[in-house]
């Protein structure tokens, strides 16, 4: 039995690792660097970094209070709110794209003119990434010992000081892991972005979109960008493992929803 | 200086209904687990609603916890794990000489997880005192400690509380802790104070079998000195008793009522302790009777009490073994 299981494991691991290995064997390091100098690649890198930085800032700024509220308050409809927050995690990217258009498109619910602009990229990235952060954040704040928070109150700290000096530092590990997961998800965002923001080089064309745009034209550029994203994802994964010991529990797992 | 509390907090199976006034003294709140003791402390601190709280005519009822001048020591101490000892203390206010006073100055840069139980207890107390509170609340301050540390910390805590002279409520489920720390003990059962009085009064005249069981031991306070293998304890009235435990200085000698026998004369055996005095109380507890002679209470069967025919005011001798006398440092 052990031999059979070992074979299965070998096949599975090889299958999972092969595409990543293939990228790096198909392209030499020098070509990789050269291809990244191509205008399309450089533009995509700039767009990705800029939109992801803004989206992440939004996710952290709005997501942290949201996660704290959901973790510390029990109110009617809390499970419904938690489910709504989790929805983008399971939503097919195409549905997210259509939904964002229906909400923010010119003829959409809010009828704005953000579609096919860089703002649309930011919104798409925030939409898919935020749930990762909020869900891990809820679990992180729930794990903060309520007695320690009470102790801080009795020591003269008002709600703001308790949040800043006690809850936030104690939840920092989990929040950090959630932010890394959200960043990784946002950086790879493809489906919702291409539908809601299009793929205009230098404006809305992020790294994943550039890979898609280039692979018919110049496969070497696509490979180089793929290698860049793969290396980056790998680095993020290592960072989380090094900092938190293991990959943080996936957002669905922990936390009560009652 | 007086803290007045009038609490009415619904709990799962019953309501907590307690009205109590605590002057510049230590009031021990004792009782079985789940009786509502911790809830009462939390209500006084404002962490749960439902208590009218007033300090010297200043109404705290509507104030949030951070605006009540309360030092709260939690059962597991609730130290901030991410802060050093010094930062834990300074979270509440300037540390001043608190680190020195509570002998934690050498631990100033340590994190809570590096500390022993006794050290954590002192840090928790220093932190509670750093906000210069006018009321102290201690939830089972000794429960997290092993028995040996507990004896030492109990004595320190007693001295500290005396020195502070603040209205203090100590929650405990241990009669010995209550007796050692507090001027007055209230017994809380199912949300109600069933009896209130000195530790001595509780043991002499427990109002219910629960109180009798809780107040399991007589405490004779005195000064101990070593005498060969034995320890002699001189009580306040000059009586000398003997214990096989080793101790010196201020102690409480612990004697269980059911180990005390009563008779008209002193024992023939010199290894026995005895107290001669007048019977001050004869209280039936279930099918037994508690008879108090001087500072010692004996629990005897109703039949044996009837045979002795003891009544209040009669002269009697209470006798118990030196080997059965535990000494607890105060």
Describe the overall structure.
The complex is a heterodimer of chains A (258) and B (330). Chain A is mostly helical and 258 residues long. Chain A has helices at residues 2-26, 29-36, 39-72, 78-90, 93-104, 118-142, 146-154, 159-187, 191-196, 207-214, 219-244. Chain A is globular, with a radius of gyration of 21 Å. Chain B is globular. Chain B is 23% helix and 37% strand. A six-stranded mixed β-sheet of chain B has the order 6-7-8-3-9-10, with helices on both faces. In chain B, strands 13-12-11-14-20 form a five-stranded antiparallel β-sheet. Chain B has helices at 37-45, 85-90, 98-101, 117-130, 147-164, 175-181, 199-204, 209-214, 302-308; strands at 3-10, 15-22, 26-30, 51-55, 58-59, 70-73, 135-139, 168-172, 184-189, 192-197, 218-227, 230-235, 240-243, 249-255, 261-263, 272-285, 288-293, 296-301, 315-321, 326-329. In chain B, strand 9 (184-189) and strand 10 (192-197) form a beta hairpin. Chains A and B meet through helix 7 and helix 8 of A and strand 6 and helix 4 of B.
H-E order of chain A: HHHHHHHHHHH
Supply Rg of chain B. 22 Å
Can you summarize the main beta sheet of chain B? 6 strands, mixed
| Backbone CA Rg of chain A | 21 Å
Within the largest sheet of chain B, what's the order of strands?
6-7-8-3-9-10
Low-confidence stretches of chain A: 249-258
> Proportion of β residues of chain B?
35-45%
Q: What are the low-pLDDT stretches of chain B, counting only 5+ consecutive residues below 50? A: none
Mean pLDDT of chain B: 88
- SS class of chain A: mainly alpha
State the share of residues found in helices of chain B, binned by percent: 10-25%
What is the average per-residue confidence, as pLDDT of chain A, rounded to a whole number?
Answer: 90
Tally of contiguous helical segments of chain B: 9
Note the gap between the termini of chain B.
26 Å
Looking at how many chains there are and whether they match, the oligomeric state comes to heterodimer
What form of chain B results from the Cα inertia axes? globular
* Helical stretch tally of chain A: 11
Instruction: Kindly name the structural category of chain B.
Output: alpha+beta
Distance between the termini of chain A: 42 Å
Largest sheet of chain A: none
Beta percentage of chain A is under 5%
């Amino acid at each position: 039995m052990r031999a059979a299981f070992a074979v299965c494991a070998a096949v599975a691991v090889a299958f999972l690792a092969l595409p990543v290995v293939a990228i790096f064997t198909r392209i030499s390091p020098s070509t990789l660097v050269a291809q990244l100098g191509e205008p399309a690649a450089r533009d995509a890198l700039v767009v990705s970094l800029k939109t992801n930085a803004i989206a992440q800032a939004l996710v952290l700024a709005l997501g942290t209070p949201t996660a704290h509220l959901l973790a510390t308050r029990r109110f009617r409809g809390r499970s419904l709110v938690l489910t709504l927050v989790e929805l983008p995690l399971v939503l097919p990217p195409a549905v997210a794209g259509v939904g964002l258009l229906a909400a923010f498109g010119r003829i959409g619910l809010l009828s704005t003119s953000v579609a096919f602009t860089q703002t649309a990229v930011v919104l798409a990235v925030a939409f898919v990434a935020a749930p990762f952060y909020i869900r891990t954040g809820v679990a992180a704040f729930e794990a903060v010992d309520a007695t320690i928070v009470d102790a801080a109150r009795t020591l003269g700290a008002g709600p703001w000081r308790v949040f800043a000096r006690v809850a936030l530092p104690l939840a920092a590990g989990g929040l950090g892991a959630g932010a890394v997961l959200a960043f990784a998800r946002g950086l790879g965002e493809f489906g919702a972005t291409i539908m809601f923001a299009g793929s205009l080089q230098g404006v809305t064309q992020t790294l994943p979109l550039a890979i898609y745009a280039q692979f018919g034209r110049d496969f070497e550029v696509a490979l180089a960008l793929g290698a860049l994203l793969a290396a980056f994802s790998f680095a993020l994964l290592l960072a989380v493992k090094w900092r938190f010991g293991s990959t943080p529990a996936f957002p669905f797992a922990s936390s009560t929803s009652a | 200086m007086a803290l007045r509390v009038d609490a009415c907090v619904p709990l799962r199976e019953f309501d907590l209904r307690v009205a109590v006034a605590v002057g510049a003294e230590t009031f021990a709140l004792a009782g079985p687990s789940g009786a509502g003791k911790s809830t009462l402390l939390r209500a006084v601190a404002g962490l749960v609603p439902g208590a009218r709280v007033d300090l010297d005519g200043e109404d705290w009822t509507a104030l949030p916890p951070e605006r009540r001048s309360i030092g709260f020591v939690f059962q597991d101490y609730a130290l901030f794990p991410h802060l050093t000892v010094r930062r834990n203390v300074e979270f509440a206010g300037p540390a001043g000489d608190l680190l020195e006073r509570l002998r934690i100055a050498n631990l100033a840069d340590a994190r809570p997880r590096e500390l022993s139980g006794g050290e954590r207890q002192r840090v928790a107390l220093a932190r509670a005192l750093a906000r210069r509170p006018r009321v102290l609340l201690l939830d089972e301050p000794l429960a997290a400690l092993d028995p040996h540390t507990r004896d030492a910390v109990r004595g320190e805590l007693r001295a500290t509380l005396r020195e502070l002279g603040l209205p203090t409520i100590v929650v405990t489920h241990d009669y010995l802790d209550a007796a050692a720390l507090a001027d007055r003990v209230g017994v809380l059962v199912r949300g109600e104070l069933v009896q209130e009085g000195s530790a001595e009064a509780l043991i002499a005249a427990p109002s219910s079998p629960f109180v009798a069981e809780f107040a399991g031991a007589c405490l004779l306070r005195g000064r101990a000195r070593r005498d060969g293998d034995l320890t002699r304890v001189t009580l306040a009235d000059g009586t000398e008793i003997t214990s096989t435990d080793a101790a010196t200085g201020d102690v409480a000698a612990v004697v269980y009522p059911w180990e005390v026998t009563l008779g008209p004369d002193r024992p023939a055996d010199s290894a026995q302790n005895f107290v001669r005095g007048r019977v001050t109380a004869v209280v039936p507890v279930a099918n037994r009777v508690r008879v108090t002679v001087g500072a010692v209470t004996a629990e005897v069967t109703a039949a044996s009490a009837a045979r002795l025919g003891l009544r209040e005011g009669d002269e009697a001798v209470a006798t118990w073994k030196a080997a059965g006398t535990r000494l607890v440092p105060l």
